[in-house]
Design a protein that fits this description.
By secondary structure, this protein is mainly alpha-helical. It has helices at residues 2-12, 44-51, 55-89, 93-121, 123-141, 147-164, 166-172, 180-208, 213-228, 238-243, 247-261, 273-287, 294-312, 319-328, 339-378, 404-415, 417-431, 433-450; strands at 22-27, 32-37, 41-42, 269-270. Helix content is 70%, strand content 3%. The protein is elongated, with a radius of gyration of 29 Å. The protein starts with a helix and ends in a 10-residue tail after the last helix.
């Protein structure tokens, strides 16, 4: 009653932008029903669902997919760089491993930082900073005069590369919910394409023209600079805009999406999910006070609509609410805000640790296997993979480099992801994400186990 009285007072003060609210009274035999209709509101989720998947999402997909391509190239080059640097610098085994490990240490630090930074400062702006950081540090590492210099700048590349994964987050925020699983799996082709491009570069520069790894790192950095040219043509995430209180900018982005896709946005005003819930709750609360007169009810609803229209048509929050909104985003503790959230977070961490260790492990380990086989063949042994206990340590005196045939084998390994991704795209919507991932993890574990049989080079 006190809240309604305040609303009535606000109406008496002639607040601006009040809109007429129609009340329809329907009188039955035993009861009276009051129906109120306010101007409609919609959220970013509802707008994206209405726009569907079209030309706008395709352009964003190409942008974020190119980031995935260059990210995959920077990861794949690790497996090629370490053996080459070992031969040029005469590195010990632990020094060769360190050259790869520092990249992943940088990625760990980057994963802890970039997500929170993006939540506070926006997806597009931070992605641009990340791409500049990775491009410059990758190019500088191509001119590394010594081992220490190379280690430092490759670690910086790793720190920035972790942020490049946020390009996926950026892309997802433009996708309708029903299409996310399917489209994200299709976008995995970009990663596979990036690994193949890197192997082809190594095949051409190192294998064919016999250039050293400096050239390989330099050419690997070029696509990063090309990607920077696309930033002026892509929008900020509407989710970030709405969370930052810039409703007008979010609406313009959604209108651009609707126009590009040939769709129409929902009728009404754009509000955040929390604000829509608050409007719904307040409307419900007012309807519960329908025992008052029709004039009182109308005045209350008009005042409620006035407040919301005044705040959100101007696309701004109150200063204290905006400050609270900015401070509350990107909090690590949000991952453990409830028991259910904490459980899901821990389970996803376990899944991701297993997936990352497996994938990056095989990427790095493939060239090591080929090197072991080559050194064993150079010593007069058979062309089979030795068992772990019998594997020879890398020789610093008789260092062997990968040749053209080795890079062809790497190319076959990288291209094997294409049919796997295609199969996943077909079955993921039918069997679901969890079942598909579980079966594929089981298959990967089985094929890893088969490698302990010491197979021939071609079977590796």
């Amino acid at each position: 009653p006190g809240y309604i009285h305040a609303m009535n007072s606000a109406v008496d003060a002639d607040l601006p932008q009040a809109q007429t609210i129609e009340l329809q009274q329907v009188v039955g035999d035993d009861s009276q029903h009051v129906k109120s209709t306010t101007s409609e509101v919609f959220t970013v989720d509802e707008a994206i669902e209405a726009c569907g998947y079209g030309w706008f999402q395709f352009k964003v997909c190409m942008f974020s997919g190119f980031i995935w391509v260059v990210d995959a190239m920077e990861i794949m080059v690790l497996s090629i760089l370490a053996p080459l640097a070992r031969c040029d610098y005469g590195l010990k085994p632990w020094e060769e491993s360190l050259l790869t490990s520092v990249v992943f240490v940088g990625m760990i630090l980057g994963f802890l930082v970039w997500g929170m930074v993006m939540d506070r400062h926006g997806r597009k702006k931070v992605l641009f900073v990340i791409c500049v950081l990775v491009a410059v540090s990758a190019l500088i590492s191509a001119f590394a005069p010594n081992y220490a210099f190379l280690v430092v700048f490759r670690s910086i590349v790793g720190f920035g590369t972790a942020g490049a994964f946020q390009g996926v987050t950026y892309f997802v925020e433009f996708l309708p919910v029903k299409r996310r699983g399917y489209v994200l799996m299709l976008s995995s082709f970009f990663w596979t394409f990036g690994t193949m491009v890197e192997v082809l570069l190594a095949l051409l520069l190192v294998g064919h023209y016999q250039l050293d790894w400096h050239w390989l790192l330099g050419f690997t950095a070029v696509p990063l600079f090309i990607d920077l040219l696309a930033f002026p043509f892509v929008p900020e995430s509407p989710y970030y805009c709405i969370s930052a209180g810039d409703v007008e900018k979010a609406r313009k982005i959604l209108e651009r999406m609707a126009q590009s896709n040939g769709k129409v946005l929902p009728v009404g005003r754009l509000v955040s999910v929390s604000e829509k819930q608050r409007i719904t709750n307040e409307g419900t609360a007012m309807q519960q006070h329908a025992g008052g007169s029709a004039e009182t009810e109308m005045s209350s609803l008009v005042a409620l609509e006035t407040v919301h229209m005044d705040r959100y048509d101007k696309a701004e929050l109150a200063p204290e609410e905006l400050a609270e909104s900015l401070d509350s985003r990107g909090q690590f503790k949000d991952l453990f805000s409830s028991r259910e959230t904490a459980t899901v977070t821990c389970l996803l961490w376990i899944v991701w640790i297993g997936a990352v260790v497996t994938y990056y492990g095989i990427v790095i380990f493939t060239t090591e296997i080929l090197n072991i086989i080559k050194e064993q063949a150079a010593n007069g042994s058979s062309d089979t993979l030795p068992c772990v206990d019998a594997a020879p340590a890398p020789s610093e005196q008789n260092c062997t480099k990968l040749d053209t045939s080795d890079y062809v084998h790497l190319l076959w390994t990288a291209s094997a992801e294409f049919p796997a991704v295609a199969l996943t795209v077909v079955v993921i919507e039918k069997f679901g994400r969890r079942k598909t991932a579980a079966v594929e993890f089981l298959l990967a574990a089985g094929f890893f186990f088969l490698m302990f049989i010491c197979p021939l080079r071609e079977l590796v």
